[in-house]
């Protein structure tokens, strides 16, 4: 804003100091600011901080990565695709302050949260940024994200973050750090209501497939609900068929189809392997229409396996007619 000066005393004089502007006008100005400008403005005064914190801001994507030393790398991308904010913070106090602000005002189309040094499976969880800090644990604000990717986070971190999200999460990707019983993850409302979710790698939690299928049966999950996982154990398909033997609709070398309590929907378990690799056993569990014919099944499993493993898929990357290796039933 600029001042209006002149010789006539009858001409209006506009006060130009920010502190003299009414709060409702300040809010209009704040809505025009990008994240970095808001982040700076909120440090000028308590009143400004309150105004800035009251205004949500939308991002097409956000990426938060921490390491074992309480550092934080932040990249936020605005709705128009431009980088709205990108910084690497080392000061612990600033890390927590920024995290809380992002969590309070951010509305994300896509949000990815990762631990540092994720190429190592034995990352230590000491000095954990999320669940070993009392300030964050006591923080009650919730963020909004449509699609969330939690990479290389242990079970405690995953549960903590899911509990800090508003309703409306559609897809959830979980990485390779989950071990032990996962009942407390399955019972999370975001997991139960997600349109799609996956766990990139599990070693010996075959019963997880049974529990998810039963949860879908009990909740009468919507058609299209999907879960994917990669196991080391290849007997999952046959054990699934035995576990739900009283609900069997059909069993093949690639798939098991079972009835739910609703006559209009079934649950389908698919087993897929690419390039004759017998080490990683990929499974997809879906709620499907009871009217779906076997001829309508997706015959090429590479696309969903690539997605599960976060690998870009291109048509023709592998032979869709490969002779897969399946467990016998």
TrEMBL record:
Which domain of life does the UniProt lineage start with? Eukaryota
- F-box domain segment(s): 18-59
* Pfam families per record: F-box
Could you tell me which PANTHER family the record lists for this protein? F-BOX DOMAIN-CONTAINING PROTEIN-RELATED, F-BOX DOMAIN-CONTAINING PROTEIN-RELATED-RELATED
Identification of the protein by name? F-box domain-containing protein
Native species of this protein?
Answer: Caenorhabditis nigoni
Q: What is the gene name? A: Cnig_chr_IV.g12767
């Amino acid at each position: 804003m600029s001042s209006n000066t002149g010789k006539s005393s009858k001409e209006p004089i506009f006060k130009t100091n920010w502190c003299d502007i009414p709060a409702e006008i300040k809010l209009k100005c704040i809505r025009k600011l990008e994240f970095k400008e808001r982040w700076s403005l909120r440090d000028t005064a308590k009143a400004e901080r309150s105004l800035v914190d009251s205004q949500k801001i939308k991002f097409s994507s956000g990426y938060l990565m921490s390491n074992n030393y309480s550092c934080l790398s932040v990249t936020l991308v605005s709705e128009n695709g431009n980088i709205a904010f990108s910084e690497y913070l080392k000061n612990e106090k600033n890390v927590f302050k920024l995290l809380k602000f992002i969590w309070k005002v951010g509305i994300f189309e896509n949000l990815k949260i990762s631990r540092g040094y994720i190429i190592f499976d034995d990352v230590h969880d000491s000095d954990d940024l999320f669940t070993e800090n009392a300030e964050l644990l006591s923080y009650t604000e919730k963020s909004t994200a449509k699609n969330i990717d939690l990479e290389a986070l242990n079970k405690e971190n995953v549960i903590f973050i899911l509990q800090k999200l508003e309703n409306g999460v559609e897809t959830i990707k979980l990485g390779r750090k989950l071990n032990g019983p996962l009942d407390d993850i399955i019972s999370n409302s975001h997991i139960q209501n997600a349109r799609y979710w996956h766990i990139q790698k599990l070693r010996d939690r075959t019963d997880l497939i049974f529990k998810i299928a039963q949860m879908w049966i009990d909740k009468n999950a919507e058609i299209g609900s999907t879960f994917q996982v990669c196991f080391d154990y290849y007997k999952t398909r046959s054990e699934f068929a035995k576990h739900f033997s009283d609900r069997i609709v059909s069993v093949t070398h690639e798939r098991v189809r079972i009835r739910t309590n609703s006559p209009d929907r079934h649950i389908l378990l698919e087993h897929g392997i690419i390039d004759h690799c017998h080490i990683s056993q990929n499974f997809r569990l879906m709620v499907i229409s009871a009217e779906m014919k076997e001829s309508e099944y997706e015959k090429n499993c590479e696309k969903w396996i690539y997605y599960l493993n976060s690998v870009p898929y291109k048509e023709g990357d592998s032979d869709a007619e490969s002779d897969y290796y399946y467990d016998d039933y």
